[in-house]
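Hi W., the beta-D-mannopyranose complex you wanted:
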Amino acid sequence: MKVRTPLSRGWTLRLNTDRGTPEGAPPGLAGTTVPAQVPGCVHTDLMAAGLLADPYLDRNESEAAWVGRADWAYATDLPRRDNTFERAELVFDGLDTVAAVHAAGSLLGRTRNMHRSYRFDVTDLLEAGPAPLEVVFTSAYTEAETVRAALGTRPNSYPEPFNYIRKMACSFGWDWGPTLVTAGVWREARIEQWSTARLAEVRPRVTVDGDGSGFVEITVDLDRTTTGRDRPLRLAAAVGDVSSEVAVAPGEDTVTLAVRVPDAALWWPRGYGDQPLYGCTVVLTGEDDGRVLDAWERRIGFRTIEVDTSADAHGSAFTLVVNGTPIFARGVNWIPDDVFPTRVTDDRYRTRLTQAAEAGVDLVRVWGGGIYEDRAFYDVCDELGLMVWQDFLFACAAYPEEQPLRSEIEAEARENVARLMPHPSLILWNGNNENLWGFADWDWEQALAGDSWGEGYYLGLLPRVVAQTDPTRPYWAGSPWSGSWDHEPNDPDHGTAHSWEVWNRRDHSDYLTTVPRFVAEFGWQAPPTLATLERALSERPLNADSPGMLHHQKAEDGNGKLNRGLDPHFATPADFDTWHYLTQLNQARAVAAGVEHWRSHWPRCAGTVLWQLNDCWPVTSWAAIDGDARLKPLYFEMRRLYADRLLTIQERDGDLVIAGCNQGPAPWSTSVTVRRVDADGTVLASAEVALKAMERSVALERLPDSVTQFGDTRREFLVADADADADADADADADAGPDAGPEAGPGTGGLRAVHFACADREFAYADASYDVRIAEEGENGAVVTVTATGLVRDLLLQADRLDAGARTDRGRVTLLPGESTSWQVTGWSQPDADAARAALFCVNSGAGRE
Ligand code: BMA
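Structure:
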């Protein structure tokens, strides 16, 4: 049986000064070695050795720039080989990026692609005994700048040369990320020893037949030793408890087996059914002695996936159809969870993806400026029923199609399509992020003057690789992409669209002006939680434009856009705390404006993919979960917006309607209480509206004039309350009142929609007034209960102000006089009512905060 010996110990790192020492390197570093982690990277090793200040703190990032410009050497010893095996190989699952690999004094090979694995025969080199191994990394800049000089400059939305090298693009900085150009052995390194033959690649194609049986066609590539070439072998495959075997003739090195599973249990996205996973194994044995030579194991799942792109009255659709069921995708965009991706452990993947699932997310798009994530990422998605849309790794730039890039890209695509094809969660391969759009709309075409830019990848090479390797998965050429050059790539009426005009230049109410077929990106910025800012920045007082705050804001004119986004709604914030609360609130409201509108247009609009779920360091960004994994108010808003049942007030043909968006499996029949309320809480008009939304559909009911005829929009607003749990047979539930808030999500019983017809800055709010009570609960837990004595708009309890480790279970709530609501707080070491009062914010603050 093949033996794998991880090479994770005894590594050291040194600066390689053969090409000189870059400016900024600490004096005396040349000649010193420090202990190194494998998998790992230079930055984290230098930090561990006390040679580099944490670049995530203050403005240390700027002082770390030299690291990415330097050359580095990693070294360890390879073990003596076990002579009972015919072959010994040195395997790297990932090298970041440009490396020369030397063992026992000889050069084994050179690498230039972070997204591939590498394998070197070291049988002879390990004969004599332990051999020194050295992996010498050249700065990624050196390679990228050399390729750029040879091929000529191509358009790029960012200043750094990431489009000339196959390396995680956002390592070079992004509009939410620091520029920290890494090097290192970033995935597992090991020695594999084997005899006769090994499984070089296993590619299971999983389909479901019309009779309900699952069909797995497994193609196996074999690698044989010289003596193994003539040996007859046997391959056995099993899926669940069904198995199949095939004899492998001497010399044969690609074999296909098939396993049919009768009555296969179907894998579904979360919320649509279960996620049954079947063990899938392949075992290679010698035909003559029956000895096991190698084995492979994964989990697979049975489901069908198509994208419905049919033409209709509105243009052409982009609707995911799983097991025959069309789905409104409740998505988030995923970026690398850390600029140093080796710090993202299996547990961290699980935590982050579980947070997404708990917010109602059912689709995660792995964005093209990051990486093909580790197996653990896709394993968790398989288990949680999160559909994965995987971009090929191209983002926001023109990519040359010449060598040396072209063959690297082909090899990387073939390897990763094969590696990820067992995962049922993977439902789509996407060619790139924004590059087709860039060519057509950002003047690239003129600038390129005929040079290659990547079209041959997105419309040629990549769909061919997917079709040849894994034809069970749909391929879409880009995000955004309208399906052909007949329409502009970001045409909202065709295919996928990115909605960025609104954040960049307009007010969030402008989301309501379009109904794209599928919104693959849209979002709004906000700063991270205060505790995250205070950990990352030492300057005091913090200000929106204090130096560290500006350093941790990477978007062009980001703070300008944040402030211009507040202008139409709120008076200029008087202090930092108010600015922080309002920008976070505006982020939640902006995303709500988009999702409520687009969801109410299902099935014409078939999905929203929020930019972005997560952050990779502490930063002001579009994320819902900040760089220290704390939840921004947007996170709770997303949970409301992505719940199976969403209640919202929308406009149709100039009239106000109540929309019941129901993506659940049962009809939703409820009575909605709609009230027009005065700023002082007096109910001016009230009506009951019967709403019946069939499963996976939207119901719209016009609101009666008696409620919608505002006397004075500066004093009056609408509140609609409904029961989230009512089904077709149950009566409408009167409980939907006090506890319901805009945040009411799964399990809270009531749903509330609030509609103001005038901006907050013009509304005749009285200062909020409310009582706060706390009840301690268990260890480090408490319940904060607020009872309103007047209108309280968008009341938010900021848990991190109670305790840096505290969490709450809810976001913002709007309360009418007499209503109360509670936040469950965990991780609060010293519960205290005054602290709770100081952590409560609302739009009409004043009296309420005293
Ligand atoms: C799109 C994304 C990212 C970017 C985001 C916010 O361009 O694809 O490149 O971070 O918008 O600007």
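Residues 174-176, 369, 395-396, 433-434, 521, 611 surround beta-D-mannopyranose (CB under 6 Å).

W.
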